[in-house]
Design a protein that fits this description.
The chain is an all-beta fold. Helix content is about 0%, strand content about 60%.
Amino acid sequence: AVTFMAFPPDSSDRFATASMDGTIRMWDLSDYKVLCKGLCKEGGAPHCMAFALECLLTGWSDGFVRCFDAETGEMLWKMGDVHRGGVTALAVSHNHRFMVTGGEEGDVRVWDIKQRDMVAHLKEHNSAVTSICIFTDDAHCLTASRDRNILSWDLRREKRIASLRQRMGGVNSVSLAQDQIQVVSVGQERRVTMWDLRDPEPISAVNLPDEAMTVTLSHSGRFIACGGRDQVVRVFDFDTNRLLME
């Protein structure tokens, strides 16, 4: 099974996939061929990944972060004891200097990529972290968790500054709008929920027939796409919440 997919921040002609068999693949969208492949046999399964310049940072069920060369697939380095129980979420800053990771036990940690040192430890979630978004200022981030909470953090002060709580079930995925104020989430509640970080109550919600596992906002901010357990991808209009296609 494919566990995660990621596009480089500056390109739409190639993307990476991670699989339960421990392989990381780079794909060319012009001919749908594999450009390169990386493999780790002893790491369990890769849960999450993100690009950092020409590298691909991946989080694994054995608690390691492994770095692969995005051009050759070669493993460049690995970092152990990132999270006990497994690395469940990972995001790279826009300046590519640090990454934020989330773990099975709810810990959120900030790491200097070059030095591979932990620079902050944020602990308020009490269940697995499922999704991380870093703001464009690289000073704030959003984290979502199975504990039903979406938290907004000031990374410099290492302090929570906002909290949103889903009524039922864990949050599986969040996406941050370009205005850095509006947030879209999906989870076990079987809804696409729109939030404003200044308001603890949801702005609006759309019911889904089944649990969605992932959600993303288009770069234009006009469309929401989500997919989940029923193996259907749905696209909604962000402003009207209208279903456009499935």
